[in-house]
Design a protein that fits this description.
two-stranded antiparallel sheet, disordered C terminus, alpha/beta, Rossmann fold
């Protein structure tokens, strides 16, 4: 099984990193021969869209004949998604939504004619589905009866990843981290992980690297 493991927090011991690492460990525990493709966007952040990339995506004509090398980084990242049987993302909630380093990745993997088709009804995904586990850490509370702030992160990820064909998403939520320490943090993390259903891994067949090309 190939696992694409992405972390976004700038803090090396962050709650979201601990969540994503725990999810990966559980996946390894229920499968054999796991290979991990690692993307740490704090240690090696992706640049935001370049002039050439933005130009290439600006119209069907420029996308058909893009500037030389404009799509190279996007292609590498898309192929990592295609090669993965499972994707694990650890991310903090920054100002109610995804951090900019995760948005930079999203902007590179959403590409017309490559990962989605534009139709009169909207975007149609061109990639085969596979499980996506997202560990989210938030200093505040955005879900449940005690929510006191909006959540633009989980619906956004559901829509953008769904638009390229990734619809089997599960979220592990670790909230109020600003007030969690020691055993309280550990228990909250275990509770978040308990919501993850690993049985979906067996339900999605392995995809070839060239899928969607």
């Amino acid at each position: 099984m190939n696992i694409l493991h992405i972390d976004c927090s700038p803090r090396p011991e962050s709650h979201s990193r601990q969540l994503s690492a725990a999810i990966v460990a559980r996946l390894i525990g229920v499968t054999s021969g796991a290979t991990i493709i690692r993307r740490d966007f704090a240690a090696a952040p992706l640049p935001h869209a370049s002039l050439d990339y933005a130009t290439a995506l600006s119209s069907p004509a420029t996308l058909a004949a893009p500037p030389k090398g404009a799509l190279d980084r996007s292609e590498v990242l898309i192929r990592e998604v295609e090669a993965a049987d499972v994707i694990v993302i650890g991310t903090p909630m920054h100002n109610l939504t995804v951090p900019s380093v995760l948005k930079a990745w999203i902007d590179q993997i959403l590409r017309a004619g490559r990962t989605f088709m534009s139709t009169p009804a909207g975007k149609v995904g061109m990639l085969g589905d596979r499980p996506v586990f997202v560990g989210i850490a938030s200093g505040g509370v955005f879900s449940g009866e005690k929510a006191n702030q909006p959540d633009f992160l989980t619906p956004y990820l559901s829509v953008v990843l769904g638009s390229i064909g990734l619809t089997t998403l599960q979220f592990a939520l670790l909230q109020a981290t600003a007030f969690l320490e020691g055993d309280h943090a550990r228990l909250a993390r275990e509770k978040a992980l308990a919501a993850i259903d690993l049985t979906v891994v067996a339900e999605v067949p392995r995809r070839a690297t060239a899928e969607g090309a």
